[in-house]
Amino acid sequence: MKKKEIVDKIYKGNPRRSCEIGAQAELIVAADLLRRGWHVFRSVSHTGPCDLIILKHGGTLRVEVKAWPSNIEPDVIEARFDILAIVLDGHVTYRPNINALDGW
Predict the structure, then answer these.
(1) Which residues of 66-82 are buried (b: 16+ CB within 10 A; e: fewer)?
(2) What is the CATH number of domain 3-101?
(3) What span, in angstroms and rounded, lies between the C-alpha atoms of 69 and 15?
(4) pLDDT score for 37
(5) Where are the domains of the chain?
(6) For 20-58, what is each residue's pLDDT tens digit?
C-alpha cells in the first residue's frame, strides 16, 4: 500500500487536519509517559527531529509519535528516535516496549 493510500485511509471522512490529529496523539503519549514516571518535553516545532524527549534516572530518549491504524506498519524512513509510540483510538503501543525501560 502506498503512503498516500494509507494517509487517505486514516483521515478519510475526518474533518480535522493531520497535524491536529498528530498533536492530539503527542499529548496522549506525553500523558501516558508522565503517568509512568518519565519527565516529558514536547517539541514546539512540527519539523523537529523527534516529537518528545523523555528523561528518567539520568537517561534521555527521543520519542516519535504516530497516529496510525493497528493493521498497517508505520512508514518511518529516518530513525531519528529511540522509541516509536503508535496511537490508535487513545491506546498507545511502544516499539521497543516501554515496560522494558521502566527500571532503566
Answers:
(1) bbbeeeeeeeeeeeebb
(2) 3.40.1350.10
(3) 17
(4) 94
(5) 3-101
(6) 888 899 999 999 999 999 999 999 887 888 999 999 988
